[in-house]
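Tokenised fold entry reproduced for absentees:

. . .
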Amino acid sequence: MNLRNFFIGLSENKMMNALAKKYGLQLGAQSVVAGTNVEEMIESVKQLNAKGISCTIDSLGEFVSEKESAIQAKNEILEVIEAIHTHHVDAHISLKPTQLGQDIDEEFCLENLREIVNKADQYDIFVNFDMEDYTHLHTAFQLIDRLSQDYTNIGTVIQSYFYEAQDYIEKYKDYRLRLVKGAYKESEDVAYQDKERIDQNLINLIEYHLKYGKFTSIATHDHRIINHVKNFTAMHNIPKEKFEFQMLYGFRNDLQFQLTNEGYNFCTYVPFGTDWYGYFMRRLAERPQNIQLVAKQVFNKKTNTILGIAAGAFLFGRMSKRK
């Protein structure tokens, strides 16, 4: 089992998710999550804004299977939109359709999304649709297509590990797009498995959208790709107003501040809430080097003990299935 699959497996471990929800702040979750409620999150956003950094806010949660939970998630996102407007912070929304009922009923999900997008539109706030695993990909794009008939304040994510990524970036070139590598375990039938292919495809997507697209959010912690973008935009006279770099809250803070000080637009992905563990493990799966970026902040003796228990349980479960 490689490290990527290991972290994806941990992200799906119910015992570890339950422990993380219960002991999250004690385990150091505040290093990667900007608070457990709207008030704490807004204060974190204000601190980033003061450094010249904009934010995209994610109320953590996904793969909801009950309407009550989806409505609760919708109401919390509406609260976030109201807070962005009330506090005049430089921020927009990121959301996952599965959090709002995509797995329950498409029309129910659409109405939840419409309520969010409509309220955000009233306040001139952008809403980004995070993309999830391949099984949800096509219906998520269909939801975007339907909402785009009435609203222009929406955009989405293109994941470079999908073979279809180039088709999607051409179709949605007139949208504000976030370009990423991808963080879910996908079949070789639909996605590249080789890191070099994934990285090169991300560069191809970035170059295409910088030249032909609307606004490009380049979401990576990889300094090699960041340096490539710097050189490419300078060579092709692409103004800094057409793109931004994005990184996750709590990761590579020094580089975030450096890019901001160099005059680049910078946006930090700001997650908040108690459902943080699956999100965090997938970030490590996406780029295992990320563990080095937050290890000193997040992992202490207590954290390592609980991680070890969960990892052992996960590995034991995997071995049992093979027998």
